[in-house]
Design goal:
This protein has 371 residues and is an alpha/beta fold. It has two domains: 202 residues, Medium-chain alcohol dehydrogenases, catalytic domain (Quinone Oxidoreductase, Chain A, domain 1), CATH 3.90.180.10; 138 residues, Rossmann fold (3-Layer(aba) Sandwich). Helix 11 links the parallel strand 17 and strand 18. Helix 5 runs parallel beside helix 6. Pfam families: ADH_N (PF08240), ADH_zinc_N (PF00107). Its cofactor is Zn(2+). One of its GO terms (biological process) is formaldehyde catabolic process.
């Protein structure tokens, strides 16, 4: 079928709105009419070739919408259901069997290749293949094909157009604190970076009832929002040594640190702020593939520090996403405060606004969804 999509044609260049041809759903696939899709840093990382998906490509991996068609083997959803989409996983490997699909051994092949695992293309333009199937969806478009494994059915009375970011950025931040680090009640945490992931981590820390929640973030507006969301302290990294600031608040250091910027020097400051047996969770995408870390082995071994690379907040979609939605309905996960809506055709403006801090989380609304 003919669909409208935002196409990435060249690294570091604007997306263009174009018509492309979307394949019919195969056995376990679901055709979703997109009502809203989050704009995530990972989409730009893919456009700019840090994730080597071939261009031209339709990216987008925080989609939500309405099921329009299902493959003949699909049992999880029916036509007309409201769904949110997330990452794809195989369901068969040891990690998937442990309910840890973000660590699926097939993760790169199922999410970053630009085609189905069998090599067939989901998107074409004038008989030329266009990379699709990004995170098993490619939802910067009016419609997307997903698998039943990477969609979750949601209640129809929820604001479907803003739910998409739960499928990546928000579950990464909240799940990072609630599941990967599993911060116990009364523990202390420093969160580095106050974008959507860092602010979702703040909300997750509030849900976990952490006793001290510190956010390190350069933008004043984001520090203010963090306090509103329940952070106890905010630190502007421009105001001197971050680690000293944290140790002024907690002389013993923090039990947990959560790093969402991906910058080496910030990761090192996070490590230095840990207390004894402290655990550092890393979710930030580094600026380049060559980014390395200077770790002082003596302090690591002396204090028993631990470092945990986190993917998608350890979320197993079918239980964790409904849990986050329940918290949202109860007023305990007010992620809607982070969101600003744009038309899909305004994607380049949204990218600029997000980069300059004019909005925290952009959600793109395809034209057909403007009610």
């Amino acid at each position: 079928m003919k669909i409208t999509a935002a196409v990435a044609r060249q690294a570091h260049q604007d997306f263009s709105i174009e018509q492309v041809e979307l394949d019919e759903p195969k056995d376990h696939e679901v055709l979703v009419r997109i009502e809203g899709v989050g704009l995530c840093h990972t989409d730009l990382v893919a456009r700019d070739r840090l994730i080597p998906i071939p261009l031209p490509a339709v990216l987008g991996h925080e989609g939500a919408g309405v099921v329009e068609k299902i493959g003949k083997a699909v049992t999880k959803v029916a036509v007309g259901d409201h769904v949110l989409m997330s990452f794809n996983s195989c369901g068969e490997c040891p990690r998937c069997k442990e309910h840890l699909p973000p660590y699926c051994t097939q993760f790169p092949q199922l999410n970053y290749v630009g085609a189905r695992p069998d090599g067939s293309s989901t998107l074409k333009q004038n008989d030329q293949a266009v990379s699709g199937y990004f995170f098993g969806q490619s939802s910067f478009a009016s419609h997307a094909l997903a698998n039943e494994r990477n969609i979750v059915k949601v209640a129809q009375d929820l604001p479907i157009e803003i739910l998409g970011p739960l499928g990546c950025g928000l579950q990464t931040g909240a799940g990072g604190v609630m599941r990967s680090l599993a911060c116990p009640q009364g523990s202390t945490i420093a969160i580095f970076g106050g974008g959507p992931v860092g602010l979702a981590a703040v909300m997750g820390a509030v849900i976990q009832q952490c006793a001290t929640i510190i956010l390190v973030e350069p933008m004043a507006s984001r520090r203010e929002l963090a306090l509103e969301l329940g952070a106890h302290h905010v630190i502007d990294p421009a105001q001197g040594n971050i680690t000293e600031h944290i140790r002024n608040i907690l002389p013993q250091g923090v039990d947990f640190a959560f790093e969402s910027s991906g910058r080496g020097e910030v990761v090192e400051a996070a490590l230095a702020s840990l207390g004894s047996h402290g655990l550092l969770g890393l979710v930030g995408v580094p600026p380049s593939v060559e980014t390395t870390l200077n770790v002082n082995l003596v302090s690591l071994i002396t204090f028993g520090h631990r470092i945990h690379g986190i993917i998608e907040g350890d979320s197993d979609l079918d239980t964790f996403l409904p849990e986050l939605i329940q918290h949202y309905q109860a007023g305990k996960f007010p992620f809607d405060k982070l969101i600003k809506k744009y038309a899909l055709s305004e994607i380049n403006q949204a990218i600029q606004d997000q980069a300059q801090g004019r909005c925290i989380k952009a959600v793109l609304i395809p034209e057909h969804a403007h009610h």
